[in-house]
Write a structure and sequence with these properties.
Elements lengths: L3 H15 L4 E6 L12 H7 L4 E7 L2 E6 L3 E6 L5 E5 L9 E7 L4 E5 L6 E5 L1 H6 L16 H8 L6 H6 L9 H11 L12 H20 L42 E5 L2 E5 L6
Antiparallel strand pairs: 1-6, 2-3, 3-4, 4-8, 5-7, 6-7, 9-10
Helix pairs in contact: 1-7, 4-7, 6-7
Length: about 280
Amino acid sequence: MPELPEVETTRRCLEPDLVGATIQDVDVRRDRMVRRQARPQEFRDRLLRRRIRGLGRHGKFLIADVEGDIAWVTHLGMSGRVSMAKPDEPERPHTNVVIRTDREVEFRLIDPRTFGFVVAWTPEELDGSSLGHMGPDAYSELPRSPVLRRGLDGRSAPIKALLLDQRILAGLGNIYADEALFRAGIAPDRPGGSLTGDEVQRLRRAIKVTLDAGLRWGGTSLDDLAYLLPDGRAGEYVHRLRVYGRDGEPCRRCGTEIQRTVLRQRSTHWCPACQT
């Protein structure tokens, strides 16, 4: 699933084409893509002929600020990605949503598994949604170490599972949680409440460094190329991963074999020597 660096990189690529543009047409080819809309036709009706005033992100969600106090929200799901294309360019398979603007450019949401979605919400609907109940953004609103530690106090769940809980921090997923825990030297199965103040401080710093690196290299495109940038390029952070997807290979730091385990039904990669 695209995580914070992939979604933020996508946002930055889309911003020049979308911000200030007026939506001329909305074409949803699969009803499932608007399943979060109370009445599917409202997605088109609420966006049509309105100007996009800004483009933001919270966690793994793209959020466009549209005239009329409408939030156009896009979630990429497991395999979704966005392409910006001229109207005469051939469409890629599984193009399920197309939004055309007055700039002769189209926003195309490509999603083979249709786990992603689009929705146009009023402020009240946004506040009442799961997005409205998410924790602070792991990149732009990363809590200070004492605040983060208070959120972990008394928690017996593995720290890896807590990092994936979007109500605690929004935007981290499997890739960057594994990488941050490696940088911090913390075993993924440690109970969250067992972390010391120094360890939480290390973890906070590792989250920031890991996300910065993911953004610098355009996100992580794995072998399936499910995630690509809107211009079709692959994210290059995959070549700099320390543990994720490297089970059976030597640790880049100490040479110990990277292990893979399953925690709370999520694949987890770590170095038994470097992470305690």
